[in-house]
Design brief:
The chain is an alpha+beta fold. The chain has 4 helices and 5 strands, in the order E-E-E-E-E-H-H-H-H. The strands form 2 sheets. A 3-stranded antiparallel β-sheet has the order 1-2-3, with no helix packed on it. Strands 4-5 form a two-stranded antiparallel sheet.
Length: about 130
């Protein structure tokens, strides 16, 4: 079994090293993926020590047991709010042929993604967008 794509039922979002993402620290915009290298707790869904959110290397620390964790988990606080999926990932799900069967099976989720993309347009290059 690979970890390129999965689903986290706790956070209700796609995970895996194939899922582009932004660091879940609220002060950070670093581009990462939702693979095990970036997950708080170092194990799928966070294991026993982490919250299961994903952070860049600047926002992961090691706890007493040596597991990589976010600051909130290291200090015994509630997790941060997760950041939304990136436009890149949402557009992939809506357009890539490998997701065609999923789109047919879950039209309601497709409508939600389309609405999310319309509600949060990408910034123009003049505004710092790519």
């Amino acid at each position: 079994m690979g970890w390129s794509l999965g689903y986290d039922p706790n956070w209700k979002r796609d995970v895996g090293y194939g899922v582009p993402a932004i660091c879940d620290d609220p002060t950070c915009d670093a581009e990462i993926d939702r693979g095990l290298s970036y997950v708080c707790g170092g194990e799928p869904y966070g294991g026993e020590d982490g919250c299961g959110l994903h952070f860049c290397g600047n926002h992961l620390w090691h706890n007493k047991e040596g597991q990589q964790v976010c600051w909130r988990c290291r200090t015994g606080r509630k997790p941060y709010e997760p950041k939304p999926d990136t436009h890149e990932w949402l557009e992939w799900k809506l357009t890539d042929p490998s997701w065609a069967e999923w789109r047919k099976a879950d039209p309601e989720e497709v409508r939600k993604i389309e609405a999310a993309l319309e509600a949060t347009p990408l910034p123009s290059p003049a505004q710092g967008g790519k």
